[in-house]
Amino acid sequence: MGFTCGIIGLPNVGKSTLFNALTAAHAAVANYPFCTIEPNVGIVPVPDVRLTRIGEIYNPEKIIPTTLEFHDIAGLVKGASTGEGLGNQFLGHIRNVDAIVHVVRCFDDENIVHVNGRINPHYDIEIVETELILKDLETVEKRLRECEKKARSGDKKAKIEYDFLIVLKQHLAAGKLARSIHWKSEEEHQVFLELQLLTSKPVLYVCNVHERDLCNENEYVRAVRTIAAKEGARVVVVSAETEAEIAEFPELERTEFLEGLGLQESGLQRVIREGYELLNLITYFTTGQKEVRARTVQKGTTALKAAGQIHSDFERGFIRAEIIKFSDLDRIGSEQGVRDAGLLYIHGRDYILEDGDIMYVRFNI
């Protein structure tokens, strides 16, 4: 699995249209609020030209890409944290994802109702963030009540947690996102992680624009970029309607269609690339006669930990990792040629995997 994204935003901003285009799920989309009741889930193979090239060289029985999972979460409205709209249940769905894809309406269209009656990205983002912050406050206050008695009894660990929760509560009450807070110790960091706060998750803003604005950013997109820069978030500009059109084309015709629009890649590819950067992810590959597979891990993952993700026996009996760089394999054209050129590298358990590594694990149990 690559990573899991929850697609959120106000009603009628294009979330479900984008979801259907990205996942080719073709679920029903309606022009009215709350047409998404349960979160639709779509698993998308991550396009990677390196995987295609490795497959050509090894000619395995199967080529397996890494994947990206999208959750289409119903539109949030003002008051969602207290149950307005279809509030609380959907806020709960967000807690389970790795990152938030926040779709913001950046187009005018009198035929598509805006829940607030006007297009204003700053106000739209503020509504959604306020509801997430209020839900996080509720979570922090509940945790405070649970640890207050222990903290007052002299329990040192509980006192550290209680003091941090007080600071965190004040931070959220001031309208600040949880991910902008700084912790002073590993104990505070652990409490922070355990809370799984909604506003602690990294955010990718997706500006949904008309096709004509894909290459020339409008004032709405510029407003979103200003907000994202302050938050340390990332931005992708897409046209959900255009992505829906692209999804209907056969694979071979998509490139030609994109070029006609002045684009080099689809919205899905841009979302994936930005998402990988947002979550500090890299892709490495495993090869063999039966399968060539792309795998996703966090930057900084050791060979030992990556081996364990492939199979627990690989971690338990790890001897060494044999690494080939994709650039060498691509240039030379065969694994044997890479070996003959002395470009197969032997590494121990502490080797940090790099993007594009091709890894073979030697193990014994």
3D structure, described in words:
It is a single chain. The chain is an alpha/beta fold. It is 43% helix and 19% strand. The protein has helices at 15-23, 49-58, 87-94, 121-152, 156-173, 186-195, 219-231, 240-248, 251-260, 267-278, 303-310, 312-316, 326-332, 335-340; strands at residues 4-8, 40-45, 62-64, 67-72, 99-105, 203-208, 234-238, 281-286, 291-298, 318-325, 345-347, 357-363. The strands form three sheets. Strands 2-4-1-5-6-7 form a six-stranded mixed sheet, sandwiched between helices. A hairpin with a 4-residue loop joins strand 8 (281-286) and strand 9 (291-298). Helix 1 (15-23) packs parallel to helix 8 (240-248) and helix 4 (121-152) packs antiparallel against helix 5. It is flat and about 65 Å long. The two termini are 27 Å apart. Residues 25-38 have low confidence and may be disordered.
Radius of gyration over alpha carbons? 23 Å
List the total number of helices.
Answer: 14
Q: Describe the largest sheet.
A: 6 strands, mixed
Which strands sit side by side, in order, in the main sheet? Answer: 2-4-1-5-6-7
Helix content: 40-55%
**Proportion of residues in extended strands:** 15-25%
Sheet/helix structural class: alpha/beta
Q: H/E order of the elements? A: EHEHEEHEHHHEHEHHHEEHHEHHEE
Mean pLDDT: 86
Shape descriptor reads flat
Q: What is the number of beta strands?
A: 12
Summarize the structure.
Strands 2-4-1-5-6-7 form a six-stranded mixed beta sheet, sandwiched between helices.
What's the layout of helices and strands?
Blueprint: E1 4-8, H1 15-23, E2 40-45, H2 49-58, E3 62-64, E4 67-72, H3 87-94, E5 99-105, H4 121-152, H5 156-173, H6 186-195, E6 203-208, H7 219-231, E7 234-238, H8 240-248, H9 251-260, H10 267-278, E8 281-286, E9 291-298, H11 303-310, H12 312-316, E10 318-325, H13 326-332, H14 335-340, E11 345-347, E12 357-363
Parallel strand pairs: 1-4, 1-5, 3-9, 5-6, 6-7
Antiparallel strand pairs: 2-4, 8-9, 10-11, 10-12
